Amino acid sequence: MRKILIIEDNKTLREDVYEVLKLEEYEVFQTDNGAEGIELARHYKPDLILCDIMLPEMDGFQILANLRHDDKTSQIPFIFITSLADRANFRAGMELGADDYITKPFTIKELTTAIRIRLEMHYANQLSFTIENIEKSIRERLHKLEKQIERQKTHISEISESNEMLNLQLKTKESELFEEVFKSIETNSTLLQIKSHLETEIDRKDLNEAQKEVLKSLFLKIERIGNKKDSWRILQLKFNQAYPNFVAKITLRYPDLTQLELTIMSTIIFNMNSSQVASMLNVSPESIRKSRYRLKKRLKLKPDESLFNYIHELNMKDQEIK
Fold first, then answer.
1. pLDDT, tens only, 9-55
2. Given its phi and psi angles, is residue 57 left (phi above 0), alpha (psi -120 to 50 degrees) or beta?
3. Which of 18, 98, 121, 209 has the fewest Cβ atoms surrounding its Cβ within 10 A?
4. Do 223 and 177 form a contact (C-beta atoms < 8 A)?
C-alpha cells in the first residue's frame, strides 16, 4: 500500500484530504506543523508528501529544503497545496525541488490525478535507474570478458607447437574463460530475478493500465538485455564440456583460426543451422553462410568437399583417439 504524508495546518482541509486518500486505499499520515512532518517523513519514508506553504513556525519551503538535504528523504515526490499561486512562490518551490503545485480550492479529481501522476513518474524513474545500472554492469562485464578473450588468443598464438605444452596452456586458459562465463551466467540470474519481480508487480490489482504499460515496457527491455552477445560464450562452455579436446587439437592443426571460426565449428558439431547461429550471434543468416564459406577456404577444402562432413569426421577421430 502506497504511503502519503499530509502537512497542513487547516484542520478541516487536512481531514477532508485524509478521508479522500483513505478511500483511494492509500496509507495516510497527517500533521499540522513542519517539524513533526519532517520527523514523520524520516520515520515512515512515505511515497509522496502533500504540504501547505503557509505553516506556523516553519513554512513549506523550509520543510522542503530540509527534506531535500537528507539522503533518506531527498527523493520523495513533494507536492505543495497552497493558495499562493503567484509566479514568485511557484518558482521558489520548483527551485527547491518541488514536483508539483495544487492550488486551493481544488477538486477531488485534481488531487487524486496529481498524486497518481507523480507516483507513476517516480516509480518509473526508480525502475529506469535500476535498469540503467544493470545495463552498465553488464556492459562492463562484457568488455572485461572480451579483453580477457583477446589476451587468451594472444597467449595461445605464442604457445609452443609442442602438443603437451599446448594442451596444458589451453586447459589453463579455458578455466579462466569458464570463470568469466560463470560471472555472465550470474548476471543472467540477476536479470531473471528482476523479471520475476516485474511480473509480480504487473499482476498487482492496485495498478492501473498506465502503470502496467510502464512495467511491461521495462520487462521487455530486460528481456532484450538478457539476449545480448554472450550467448555464444555459454554455447562454447557447453561444447568444451562435451568435447574437451577438440579445440586443442584443432588449434594445433590450424593455429590461425579466429574465435568466431572456432565457434562456427562448434555450432556445426551441434548441427545448428545458419538461422539458429545467426540468432545466437545477433547477425544475419547470410553473414553466417559467408563465414562458413571463408572457414572452408581456411581449412583448404576442395569445392566439392563438405564442410559439415569434414568437421564431424575430425570430431569422430578425436573421440576414437580418446
1. 999 999 999 999 999 999 999 999 999 999 999 999 999 999 998 88
2. left
3. 209
4. no
